[in-house]
Structure formats: structure tokens, C-alpha cells
Specification:
Elements: E1 3-7, H1 16-31, E2 35-38, H2 44-55, E3 60-65, H3 66-70, E4 80-84, H4 87-97, E5 100-103, H5 108-122, E6 130-133, H6 140-151, H7 157-161, E7 163-166, H8 169-187
Parallel strand pairs: 1-2, 1-5, 2-3, 3-4, 5-6, 6-7
Helix pairs in contact: 1-2
């Protein structure tokens, strides 16, 4: 994996473990030579993960709508900062720039990005894997709900299995790497 899109909150949340995990994720990405693709902000968990990647000598690629730049929330110390017109362009550009996606704690924007990446995968727009990094059980309720959706017949077990879940950073990265390898193996004739 060359670049990983990280979806996360523009706030810190209530549990200090969220910021700690964002920092450790950025550090591990830099150590493993994985560039960051993210929403381009300097605030909250977004800023923490970007700073950790950059502090570790890694590369960070931000994608930010002009409206957020105008609010002065853009991170100006990145490898590259891409300016886009709106959130639709942001998600498309992030998808183009990354090899896989991971969601750490966040709110409605994080959920929107994750589910759009999953929907685009289901529609065949990309074949990139995605995962939840389940920090202190943050995603447990959603995981149970998605299992309920599957049990209720609105999602196939195969589609549900696409959403990888990991409790620690290396497990998440390793699962995403394995999924990329499996996809590439299918593409080899």
C-alpha cells in the first residue's frame, strides 16, 4: 500500500484514546512508508494524524473544499494540498489518490466518506478495500447494526464481509494490505 485514506473527525472527541490512536496511526504510517490521504484539515483528529505523518518524515496529501479553506481550517504544512469545489469532488479526489481507506472515530462526515467509498466499491467504481479501526469499541454499535442489516436481507454476507474491522493499527494495515494483494491477484491473468 502506497497511500491510505484516513477518514476521521475534525474534532477530538471525548476520549483521549481517539487522539492517541490518530497520532499512533500517523506514526505507524510514516514508519511503514505509507502516505496519508485525508480531508486536508488542521483541526481535530485530522490534524493529529497529518502532523504525526509529517513529523515522522512521511507524506500527507490533503483534499479540501474551498469553503473550508475560507474558514481557515486548511493544514498548510502538507506534502500537497488539493483544493476542490465541494465535498463530492473531495471524495472523488481522495479515492483517486489512495490505495485503501480506514475510518477511525469521527462523525457524520466520516460516516459519509466511509459509506460512499463502500457504495462506490459495490457499484464497481473502484476495487479498493476499506476498514474500521475500532478504537476502544467506538464502532461496535455500527458493526452490530450492519450485521442486523445483513440478517434482515438488505446486504449480502459477501458485501458485509468487505468491511474489514481491526482493533489495532498494525492489524488494520495488514488486513488492508492483504485485501489489496487479493484484488491484484484476481486481476492477473
Amino acid at each position: 500500500m502506497r497511500r491510505l485514506a484516513v477518514y476521521c473527525g475534525s474534532s477530538m472527541g471525548t476520549d483521549p484514546a481517539f487522539a492517541g490512536t490518530a497520532r499512533m496511526l500517523g506514526e505507524r504510517m510514516a514508519e511503514r512508508g505509507i502516505g496519508l490521504v485525508y480531508g486536508g484539515g488542521r483541526l481535530g483528529l485530522m490534524g493529529v494524524v497529518a502532523d504525526a505523518v509529517m513529523d515522522g518524515g512521511g507524506e500527507a496529501y490533503g483534499v479540501i473544499p474551498q469553503a473550508l479553506v475560507d474558514l481557515e481550517v486548511a493544514h498548510t504544512g502538507l506534502t500537497e494540498l488539493h483544493f476542490v469545489a465541494d465535498m463530492h469532488e473531495r471524495k472523488a479526489k481522495m479515492t483517486d489518490l489512495c490505495d485503501a481507506f480506514v475510518a477511525i472515530p469521527g462523525g457524520i462526515g466520516t460516516l459519509d466518506e466511509l459509506f460512499e467509498a463502500w457504495s462506490w466499491n459495490a457499484l464497481g467504481y473502484h476495487a479498493k478495500p476499506f476498514a474500521l479501526l475500532n478504537v476502544h469499541g467506538f464502532w461496535n454499535g455500527m458493526i452490530r447494526f450492519l450485521d442486523h442489516v445483513t440478517e434482515s436481507g438488505f446486504m449480502s454476507p459477501a458485501r458485509r464481509a468487505q468491511l474489514l474491522v481491526a482493533d489495532d493499527i498494525d492489524e488494520a494495515i495488514d488486513k488492508l494490505d492483504a485485501a489489496i494483494g487479493a484484488t491484484e491477484a484476481k486481476m492477473v491473468w
